[in-house]
Amino acid sequence: MDFILNIGLLHYLILSLLLFLIGLTGVLISRNMLRTVMSMFIMTISVVLNFMVFGHYCDNSMENANMISIFVLTISVVQTIIALVILYKIYQANEYLDAEKIKDKEN
Amino acid sequence: MESNIFYFYSLCVIILGSAAGIILAPRMYISVIALFFLICSSGFLYLSLNAKYMAIFQFILCGIFLCGYVFILLKKINRLNLKLKLVNPIKIIFSSLWVLLFGVLTCLFFNEEFNNSLYSIFNFIIEKSSDTVKFAEHIFPLHLVILLVFVAAIILRIFLSSPVVSQNEEQK
User: Fold this and answer.
1) Number of domains chain A contains
2) Burial of A79 (0-12, 13-18, 19+ CB in 10 A)
3) Which residues pair with B85 in a beta bridge?
4) Which residues in chain B are closer than 8 Å to A18, comparing Cβ atoms?
5) Which of B8, B20, B23 sits opposite A11 (nearest CB)?
6) pTM beyond 0.80, yes or no
7) Model confidence over A1-25: pLDDT tens digits?
8) Residue B19: its chain A contacts at CB < 8 A?
9) Residue A36, domain CATH
């Protein structure tokens, strides 16, 4: 009961782990490439959450955590935008974003 | 203490639910909405960890994401070949000028009546200050501004809904 009521580092870590696993599952099982990009973004959010939690519980100033998180998230956003542009080009060429179909077409 | 627990667990449910929704949603637009919810709720989680700047960054990201989504929606609506009516460009320019004037008036209203409170809000966001900004004090003037925005929107709607040239009529 105490574990449920006293929220601490472990709770946030479990949340982060679950989020990362959901993102990983999305990357592995989804055939739609757009959904794969979104799943990668979920994984990034879980990593950023990890940084924030460790910053909150281990470093009271939070400056390092903020800096690293903003840096990571900015890179992630840029990566997502580039991926979306590539996907848009693929969609223009093929009219679908199914990874299996694109693979078959290449073969 | 109890409110913190409730806040954390409800955010947990929203975050995990929206993350699962992104993968399992039958339609793509539902997963996009789920992603929006995920970014927004993770921003609130950062707020609970006292990470103000990260939360602001996350909310800005949310806004940009929403703008992109609205843009895609507009393109999709355009592709449906709906019989949309064309508005005279002069009217659009006049309406933009009206909105600009309204914006300037609102800023002046804030500046004169409420002791430069807009400056304080921007100061709160930009600088690492813990000065006497209390958002509760700004709620009342914000209500007034929202009311004025609604009035301006109604005036614009009445102004723009006057008889206009249809696209089909033009083609004929």
Assistant:
1) 1
2) middle
3) B166
4) 16
5) B8
6) no
7) 777 778 888 999 999 999 999 999 9
8) 19, 22-23, 42
9) 1.10.287.3510
Q: Which domain holds residue B150?
A: 89-171
Residue after which a domain boundary falls, among B79, B104, B122: B79
- Surface of B (47-86) touching A: CB under 8 A: 49-51, 53-54, 57-58, 61
| Cross-chain CB nearest to B50 (options A32, A49, A56) | A56
Instruction: Give the residue numbers spanning the domain of A83.
Output: 2-106
Please list the residues that pair with A98 across neighbouring strands: A32
Q: Is residue B60 one of the residues assigned to a domain? A: yes
Q: Which residues pair with B141 in a beta bridge?
A: none
Other CB atoms within a 10 A radius of the CB of residue A19 amount to 24
- For residue B84, tell me if it sits in a domain: no
Averaged pLDDT, groups of 10, chain B, 172 residues long: 78 92 88 88 87 82 78 70 64 73 67 54 50 49 63 68 51 49
User: How confident is the model over B36-77, as pLDDT tens digits?
Assistant: 889 889 988 888 888 878 888 888 888 788 777 777 777 776
* Same domain membership, residue B102 and residue B73: no
- Cα dihedral value B52, B58, B63, B66, nearest 10: -150
